[in-house]
């Protein structure tokens, strides 16, 4: 698709699929959105989907399936044991990753449960490029500790460094010398720093260090699809390799691979795979205990069929280029409009720098949460707060300010069209011009653990009324 050039204008990303099943969207008027927002306690997790216009909360389990996936779901084999659906799935995983041993699990965190219970012991450490929320929770649950070794560029919100997901190799070697690591974890498409990839050369160097110090390497491949695309586009050594060849090199340099098929494979489920029989035998016992029998692992056989085809489609550059190119377009347009965004554009969505968008707010005003609420109010678009609100209080009841205040606008794979992306950019640009109106939020109902999921907040002043008035002045009777 990179070879499709436009005659009359600069290049645009173009959809390499056509729509064959649709879901009707509603955009309720801004006055109603204000009411719904108040009912949801200004928390976008608590909005009803029917009140949302474009749902950019997450890319998890909400990716569009292809006609081939839907067709495959009809031929699912419902046997409890020895299902042919699983055989097809296992064969596809082997074909792509070259791993003879495959364990199914119901989603990504279930894979993490099995891996961490097997390998993490009290006092062990897990060095990694960057943690993911559920991974960290499972490592801690088993008495281990996450050691964050992200390269320094990864923490710079605005950068042109192509591989912000790289691990710092020097720090990794220093850490491995201590000899208490359960394993090294590399997360593809590093989620919490904005869907940023690591370089294949970085992974290869990590593998060498692992061998030198007798450690092994676990690859979290949940967001691998976009990382593969970025390696092909940005790492010159791999520009002439096929996506299949690049995938094989990722696999050859990992000892265990696991993934959430809510992201990789455009369906819902998960799996662990390895070439190491001993690792497989150790982990295998936990699958029937926590997930289900070895030939379904808690997944519906229909979803297993959909993942099998989805993994095959992941090997197609036209398919995996879609999200990165649409996100790049969105980030470029926002940057041109002066809106502070995380750069370079990553693979899972567009991340707005709420700290810079709302410099007049303190972290205790929850700038990223206020921005998520304000953006829903003026656009009907639902994003996710990733900032101080997502951090729980310390033991003294104080807020823990987050390193970054981000509004994440996820682009689920193959779901949104270019005009929907343009609408989002347009409304964000308007909001940035009116950012001074936006005030803080405060809790009126605050859970102690993972407060961002269910907590309810209210605006500290009448800023939402003022924002509505400004919207009406500029947009008249537009929704
Ligand atoms: C989503 C995700 C997980 C967890 O997967 P679930 O299917 O949501 O349990 C783990 N790692 C990464 C990088 C993810 O993005």
From TrEMBL:
Residues covered by the Aromatic amino acid beta-eliminating lyase/threonine aldolase domain: 55-422
Named cofactor requirement(s): pyridoxal 5'-phosphate
Protein keywords: Lyase, Pyridoxal phosphate
InterPro entries: ArAA_b-elim_lyase/Thr_aldolase (IPR001597), Beta-eliminating_lyase (IPR011166), PyrdxlP-dep_Trfase (IPR015424), PyrdxlP-dep_Trfase_major (IPR015421), PyrdxlP-dep_Trfase_small (IPR015422)
Superkingdom of origin organism: Bacteria
Acyltransferase is among the record's keywords: no
UniProt enzyme class: lyase
Residues carrying N6-(pyridoxal phosphate)lysine: 263
GO molecular function: tryptophanase activity
Family: Belongs to the beta-eliminating lyase family.
Name of the molecule in the record: Tryptophanase
Organism phylogeny: Bacteria, Pseudomonadati, Elusimicrobiota, Elusimicrobia, Elusimicrobiales
């Amino acid at each position: 698709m990179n070879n499709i050039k436009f005659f009359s204008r600069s290049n645009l990303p173009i959809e390499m699929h056509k729509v064959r099943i649709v879901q009707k969207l509603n955009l309720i008027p801004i006055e109603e959105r204000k009411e719904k927002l108040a009912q949801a306690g200004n928390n976008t997790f608590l909005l009803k989907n029917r009140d949302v216009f474009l749902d950019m909360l997450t890319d998890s389990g909400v990716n569009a399936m292809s006609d081939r996936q839907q067709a495959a779901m009809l031929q699912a084999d419902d046997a409890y044991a020895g299902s042919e659906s699983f055989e097809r799935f296992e064969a596809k995983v082997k074909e792509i990753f070259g791993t003879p041993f495959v364990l199914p699990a119901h989603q990504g965190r279930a894979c993490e449960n099995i891996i961490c219970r097997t390998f993490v012991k009290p006092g062990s450490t897990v060095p990694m490029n960057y943690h993911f929320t559920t991974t960290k929770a499972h490592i801690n649950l088993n008495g281990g500790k996450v050691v964050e070794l992200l390269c320094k560029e990864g923490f710079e919100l605005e950068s042109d460094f192509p591989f912000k997901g790289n691990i710092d190799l020097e720090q990794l070697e220093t850490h491995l010398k201590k000899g208490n690591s359960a394993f090294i974890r590399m997360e593809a498409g590093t989620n919490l720093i904005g869907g940023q990839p690591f370089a294949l050369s970085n992974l290869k160097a990590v593998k060498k260090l692992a061998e030198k110090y007798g450690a092994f390497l676990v690859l979290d491949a949940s967001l691998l699809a976009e990382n593969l695309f970025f390696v092909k586009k940005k790492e010159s050594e791999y520009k002439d390799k096929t996506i299949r060849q690049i995938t094989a090199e990722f696999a050859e340099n990992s000892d265990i691979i696991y993934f959430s098929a809510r992201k990789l494979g455009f369906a819902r489920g998960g799996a662990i795979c390895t070439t190491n029989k001993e690792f497989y035998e150790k982990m295998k016992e936990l699958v029937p205990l926590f997930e289900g029998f070895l030939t379904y692992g808690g997944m519906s056989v229909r979803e297993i069929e959909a993942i099998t085809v989805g993994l095959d489609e992941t090997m197609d550059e036209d398919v995996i280029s879609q999200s990165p190119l649409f996100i790049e377009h969105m980030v470029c347009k926002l940057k041109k409009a002066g809106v502070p965004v995380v750069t370079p554009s990553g693979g899972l969505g567009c991340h707005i720098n709420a700290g810079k968008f709302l410099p007049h707010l303190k972290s205790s005003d929850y700038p990223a949460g206020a921005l998520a609420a304000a953006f829903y109010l003026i656009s009907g678009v639902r994003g996710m707060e990733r900032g101080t609100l997502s951090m729980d209080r310390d033991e003294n009841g104080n807020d823990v300010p987050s390193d970054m205040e981000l509004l994440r606008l996820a682009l689920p794979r193959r779901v949104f069209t270019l005009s929907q992306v343009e609408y989002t950019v347009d409304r964000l640009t308007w909001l940035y011009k009116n950012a001074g109106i936006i005030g803080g939020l405060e809790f009126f109902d605050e859970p102690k653990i993972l407060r961002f999921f269910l907590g309810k907040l209210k605006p500290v002043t009448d800023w939402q009324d003022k924002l509505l008035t400004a919207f009406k002045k500029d947009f008249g009777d537009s929704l």
